[in-house]
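Consider this:
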Amino acid sequence: MRIHWTPSLFTYIFFLLLSSATIAQVNQTSLTEYPLGCVAPSSQTAGLDFTADDSYLRFVEPSNDAYLAIDGNRMKQLVVDQAEIAHRYRNAGNQFWGRIIGTESDHDTALWMMEQLNQTGVENIREDSIVLPPQWIPDRWIISATKGQELVELTSAWPAYGSPGTGPEGLQLELVDVGLGLVTDFFGRDVAGKAVVVHSIPTSGTIINSAARSGAIRRADELGAAAILVVLELPGNLQTAFYDVGTNVPTLSIGSADGAALQKLLTDSPDNNSVKIDVQLEVTMVEGLTTSSVRGEVPASSADAERIVIVAHRDAYFEGASDNASGVATALELMRYFAQVPKSQRIRTIEIIGTPGHHNLARTGHNWLFENRESILDQTVLLINAEHSAHALIDRWGNELCSTNSIGPFSWTINGSEKLTATTLEAFDDFGIPRWTETGGPAGEIRTISTLVPSVVIMHAGVLLHTNIETAEAIPAVSLAATTRAFAKIIDQANGMSLEDLSR
């Protein structure tokens, strides 16, 4: 058979041969990995590179221009001020640092808050002193692992609140890794008397994670572990502060990089020596400490007027920029805003309460509010919880955490009438506040009294919660402004409603 070489046939064969050569070349070359989308936080990177404040997405509604006096940049400085208080406490030599209840950082925060109120025209500024029960304070901890001559120090280790200590002599233990710590992960594993590593997947924020939800930590404790290390599987090597996990043995969180280092010790050493871990955690139950609730008022024109109460807890782990420096900044700015209203036009007294917070075994803030509920809620028609009121949206790309130029989403809960609910959601919409579609978020600091009067709560509890990279840089000024302006509008609208309107 004779082939007729037409131009089109020649072109077809040429590209067929070219494609074959290309495929052969690809088969001989490894595929190029996707480029990195962002940088995972670590001790080397000093955290995420957050978007500049002027680059965040904004929502502008001209009809709300009256609230432009609420200044996000001014509030951002209030967040920075509180972060600096925490840093001073750390720099004074305290390994367990933040704005910790009963300590110098707690008292410095209270004095700073009172000074801020004095500058805004708020009246009747005072402290309600609180005598504390013995407080759990870890003085010092060092966690390291060895296999043969190889030594790894776990620099991200952070004790779970209320964890038992080891004493100054420490514990020298064999290390065992049980993966996610599910029931089947413990089958055939002898963990008694050993240091048990559990890997935990954050399911929302760091304190809401798979190890806590599946019972892995409790399971390790019940099966006789002598110490428990919980690896938070987030990119980088974050330090994370858990609430009390209820164990009977020293329990600490560690970052994923340190967790990977332990995995390497367990799997890669040719001499097959068992991995030993040295756990030193010295804890003191400190007696004789005190704290306080900071209070102030913007009085109404009438001495017997009803009240609106704004609560913001003052304590924090690390910088605690969202939890809860942002909430304190929101509460202070609201007091500044309403103090500028001529007294003759003030319908209701607005009170601020800076509570000592709930990051402690006694949950002091919760209990103090409940114990004093009758006086706090007397004549109160609306209760607002200013807590985690701003944060950037943090996304995840493979093995990385990525900052964005968007505000992080909020959970919310409202106790009150359909009218209060509609008013609140409209205000959130007006200022472009992203939130869960449905209600049901935590009530936070006011949880013991939130159902006793009409109340509004909106909170962000995302990836960086209770970590050492929840820094002031993670708090966009635009987010502070949006939430605070929404609260101000809610208060203004509520002032046109009776208690019955707000309640039913």
